[in-house]
Amino acid sequence: xxxxxxxxxxxxxxxxxxxxxxxxxxxxxxxxxxxxxxxxxxxxxxxxxxxxxxxxxxxxxxxxxxxxxxxxxxxxxxxxxxxxxxxxxxxxxxxxxxxxxxxxxxxxxxxxxxxxxxxxxxxxxxxxxxxxxxxxxxxxxxxxxxxxxxxxxxxxxxxxxxxxxxxxxxxxxxxxxxxxxxxxxxxxxxxxxxxxxxxxxxxxxxxxxxxxxxxxxxxxxxxxxxxxxxxxxxxxxxxxxxxxxxxxxxxxxxxxxxxxxxxxxxxxxxxxxxxxxxxxxxxxxxxxxxxxxxxxxxxx
Length: 300
Known about the structure:
Elements: E1 5-9, E2 30-31, E3 34-35, H1 36-46, E4 51-56, H2 61-66, H3 71-79, H4 83-90, E5 98-103, H5 110-115, H6 118-121, E6 126-129, E7 133-136, H7 142-153, E8 156-162, E9 172-180, E10 183-191, E11 202-210, H8 213-219, H9 231-238, E12 244-248, E13 252-255, H10 259-270, H11 277-299
Parallel strand pairs: 1-4, 1-6, 4-5, 8-12
Antiparallel strand pairs: 2-3, 6-11, 7-13, 8-11, 9-10, 9-11, 10-12
Helix pairs in contact: 3-4, 8-9
Domain Nucleotidyl transferase: 10-267
GO biological process, one term: UDP-alpha-D-glucose metabolic process
Catalytic activity: alpha-D-glucose 1-phosphate + UTP + H(+) = UDP-alpha-D-glucose + diphosphate
């Protein structure tokens, strides 16, 4: 039971990062030295994906260029003897992995974006990865953890995490029955409920393993919250036909769709970067020590 295909909905406008995203994809924003979309792609490949399906829109050509072969750049790096950088560029898409780009003509929501992938996915189970959610799985990537659950149960699996009750209005929230450590069977899903109406504080985040049945259900899903076709609504319909599991992954999620989450991700990944960690940690220590000294002077 191997999942070969991964879908990346990358057609969003990224309005929270304007003007940086006016002419460039938000998924190309770098965290230290790699764009967000590359972290997502590497996670999918580590979980066995061989076909990467990008649902794109306007101003997303930079994503296609990033995963394309750069002949001039590679020739220049080779001529200058920069073999390590050359290897880094060539490994962005490893051998045996293919990229497919599908244009979403209208931005009608996540569910609509996933539906566009149907011709490329066919009748296979597949991953959906939202690059905005940068997940540090620590010991094992999030999708690999989910694939382990999928291999055991052979059904759809959604990544979830506990959120503060007052934040339920920003997520799809599940009502689920525990069946094991960190694993539950979903009984009900609600898209962005008010805190007082939320069935729990267990939120769905940007990693999914789905069966192809979701496409037929998306076809008849009406527009929901925000006037968009919500993936959550289609999954709610699927609950009547198939088991869907909620998996509380091990690791830390950085919401890089928000400016604060994006800044935190850069700090966290900078502190783990093999070339930068020591110098960056020293800089942060020096900077925070300076703030502490200034604070003491003000109080004095």
